[in-house]
Design brief:
Blueprint (H helix, E strand, L loop, with lengths): L1 E7 L5 H6 L5 E3 H11 L1 H10 L11 H10 L1 H25 L5 E5 L14 E6 L2 H9 L6 H10 L3 H7 L2 E4 L4 H17 L7
Parallel strand pairs: 1-3, 1-4, 2-3, 4-5
C-alpha cells in the first residue's frame, strides 16, 4: 500500500485535492467532528480537564473554541485527548484498506505529530495567499483568532514544501488539480521503487 500525505497551508485546498485522487481518504478533521458528535468517553475526558468550558454533549464546537481562545494550555489538553482517538481511527482505516493500492492521508498535523513513515509520499499543495484568504472567508463560522492558533501549531510551510516529493499548484480550478494529480499518480505508480520522484 502506498500512503500519500497531503501537506499545505490552512485553506490551500488540501481536502479538495485529497478527494480528487479517487482513492480512500483518511480525513482527520472529519474524524474529529465525528468524535465530537458521537464519543461520550472523549466528552467525559474533556469535561474532566476543562469543566469550566466543556459541558454539552454532543460536544459543542463553540465551547471548544472558547476553551482554545482563553488559554494555550487548554488547546494542548484538547489536542492530547482528541488526537489519541484520531490515531486509533487512522489505524482502523489503514487495516480496513490494507488491500488498496493507494490511500490518501488528509491530516493537518501529519508531520508535526510524526504520523507519516519514511517511505510515505508527501504532496505539498501550493496556492496563492489571495486564493487561500478567499477560500477561508467562504468557510462557515471562520474565526481569525482560532485560525492563528491552529497555524501556530504547524511547522513552517517552507519546511513542509522541502519535505514533499511533489508540489501541486492549486489555483482553485478542477482542471489544474486533476492534471496535477494525474501526473503525480503516473510517477508514483510507475516508479514506486524510487525514493525521490
Amino acid at each position: 500500500m502506498i500512503k500519500i500525505g497531503i501537506l499545505g497551508d490552512i485553506g490551500s485546498g488540501k481536502s479538495y485535492v485529497a478527494k480528487n485522487f479517487h482513492y480512500p481518504v483518511f480525513n482527520a478533521d472529519l474524524e474529529v467532528s465525528k468524535i465530537y458528535r458521537n464519543n461520550k468517553k472523549i466528552f467525559n475526558k474533556l469535561k474532566k480537564v476543562l469543566p469550566k468550558y466543556i459541558y454539552t454533549y454532543p460536544i459543542n464546537k463553540d465551547e471548544i473554541s472558547k476553551a482554545i481562545l482563553s488559554k494555550n494550555s487548554n488547546f494542548r489538553k484538547i489536542i492530547k485527548i482528541v488526537h489519541s482517538e484520531v490515531r486509533k481511527k487512522l489505524d482502523i482505516f489503514l487495516k480496513k484498506n490494507k488491500g488498496k493500492k493507494i490511500v490518501i492521508l488528509d491530516i493537518p498535523l501529519l508531520l508535526e505529530n510524526k504520523i507519516n513513515k519514511k517511505k510515505d509520499i508527501l504532496v505539498f499543495i501550493e496556492a496563492k495567499k489571495s486564493d487561500i484568504s478567499n477560500n477561508l472567508k467562504k468557510r462557515k463560522n471562520f474565526n481569525h483568532k482560532l485560525f492563528k492558533k491552529f497555524r501556530a501549531l504547524q511547522l513552517p510551510l517552507d519546511y513542509k514544501k522541502k519535505k514533499a516529493q511533489f508540489i501541486l499548484k492549486n489555483n482553485f480550478t478542477k482542471k489544474s488539480v486533476k492534471s496535477g494529480i494525474r501526473n503525480i499518480l503516473k510517477l508514483v505508480l510507475n516508479e514506486r521503487d524510487n525514493t525521490r520522484y
